[in-house]
């Protein structure tokens, strides 16, 4: 494919990317969405806390988003993964792993991040179902049952305290030998602190059967943890967007219109926030789409984020 130049190339066809495309489609801007078909929450059977869609499978919601976009002839969706982005404002070049290369005046990055989980047998197989990360997204479904939090960083104490406050009276923080936790403070609010790690995870009829590092079993409804989020070897890294450090890993810094530090490049969704949420992704996609359109109409209005601010 050598069509172009497009007004906008959107890299990522999940919640943020499709929402940005909707704003641009309603402005009749020629927009191409690249969708690799691997949204971050594809492992979860349901998206929770999303108004109008609470408890609906994420793929079903995205299917409705794509149906909405079909009404806008200026928007195309290409099922392909982007492997390289280079160039400059008004003359970007996007290359896919299928060998296609297209040009675009603006770029919206909405490709998300890659979750890196601890290397524990059974953990990845249960990710998004009974191995979880967010009490607000998944806590209600496992409320009032025994829960465990596996420490992967200092935010584990925060997770454990949140879960103990309103979701379960039986919360255990497995520190996995990690130091820096105030055991007395955690015990005071009702969190049990256990120094052991998790050796293996197996799903069963009641939730998860954990095998701890000393071989002892532990039965819980769910295991919560914070994965490491990576944007290595992604278009955001290729373009050199300024980053900030979040509790789960680096993320792209954006301004009030979704602009990054690179002129003509906007970002939205999980790669542009320290913590993920479908509602945030939709809101961010709206802002990035509108900001991107404004930059096409008024090139000097939306200024890129200054490097010294983003550092």
What's this, in brief?
With 311 residues, the protein is an alpha/beta fold.
Detailed description of the structure:
The chain is α/β, with parallel strands linked by helices and 311 residues long. The protein has two domains: 6-114 and 228-310, FAD/NAD(P)-binding domain (3-Layer(bba) Sandwich); 118-224, FAD/NAD(P)-binding domain. The protein has eight helices and 19 strands. The strands form five sheets. Strands 1, 2, 3, 4, 5, 6 and 19 form a seven-stranded mixed sheet that branches. Strands 8-15-9-10-11 form a five-stranded parallel sheet. α1 runs parallel beside α2. The longest helix is centred in the last third of the chain and has 20 residues, at 278-297. The two termini are 37 Å apart. The relative contact order is 0.17.
Let me know the number of strands. 19
**Termini distance?**
37 Å
- Regions with little confidence, pLDDT below 50 for 5+ residues: none
Strand content: 25-35%
Structural class of the helices, strands and pairings?
alpha/beta
- The CATH class assignment of the largest domain is Alpha Beta
The mean pLDDT is 94
Oligomer: single chain
Keywords:
FAD/NAD(P)-binding domain, seven-stranded mixed sheet, 2 domains, alpha/beta, 8 helices, 311 residues
SSE map:
Blueprint: E1 6-11, H1 15-26, E2 31-35, H2 58-69, E3 75-79, E4 82-88, E5 91-96, E6 101-109, E7 114-116, E8 131-132, H3 135-138, E9 147-150, H4 155-166, E10 171-174, H5 183-188, E11 191-194, E12 198-204, E13 207-212, E14 217-220, E15 222-224, E16 228-230, H6 235-239, E17 243-246, E18 249-252, E19 265-267, H7 278-297, H8 307-310
Parallel strand pairs: 1-2, 1-6, 2-3, 6-19, 8-15, 9-10, 9-15, 10-11
Antiparallel strand pairs: 4-5, 5-6, 7-16, 12-13, 13-14, 17-18
Helix pairs in contact: 1-2, 1-7
């Amino acid at each position: 494919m050598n069509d172009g130049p497009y007004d906008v190339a959107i890299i990522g066809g999940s919640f943020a990317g499709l929402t940005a495309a909707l704003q641009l489609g309603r402005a009749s801007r020629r927009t191409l969405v690249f969708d690799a078909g691997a949204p971050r929450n594809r492992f979860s059977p349901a998206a929770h806390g999303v108004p109008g869609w609470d408890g609906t499978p994420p793929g079903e919601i995205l299917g409705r988003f794509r149906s909405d976009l079909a009404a806008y002839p200026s928007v195309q969706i290409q099922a392909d993964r982007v492997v390289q982005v280079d160039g400059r404002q008004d003359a970007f070049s996007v290359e896919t792993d299928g060998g296609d290369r297209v040009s675009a005046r603006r770029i919206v990055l909405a490709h998300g991040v890659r979750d890196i989980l601890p290397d524990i047998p059974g953990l990845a197989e249960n990710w998004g179902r009974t191995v979880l990360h967010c009490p607000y997204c998944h806590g209600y479904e496992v409320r009032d049952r025994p829960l465990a939090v596996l420490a992967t960083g200092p935010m584990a104490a925060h997770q454990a305290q949140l879960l103990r406050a309103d979701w379960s009276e039986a919360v255990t923080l497995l520190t996995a030998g990690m130091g820096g936790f105030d055991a007395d403070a955690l015990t005071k609010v009702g969190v049990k602190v256990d120094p052991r790690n998790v050796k293996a995870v197996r799903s069963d009829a009641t939730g998860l059967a954990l095998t701890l590092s000393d071989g002892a079993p532990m039965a819980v409804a769910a295991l919560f943890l914070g994965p490491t989020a990576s944007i290595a070897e992604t278009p955001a890294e290729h373009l050199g967007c300024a980053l900030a450090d979040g509790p789960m890993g680096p993320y792209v810094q954006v301004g009030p219109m979704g602009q990054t530090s690179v002129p003509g490049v906007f970002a939205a969704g999980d790669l542009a926030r320290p913590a993920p949420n479908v509602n945030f992704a939709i809101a961010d996609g709206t802002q990035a789409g509108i900001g991107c359109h404004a930059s096409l109409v008024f090139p000097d209005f939306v200024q890129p984020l200054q490097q010294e601010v983003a550092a």
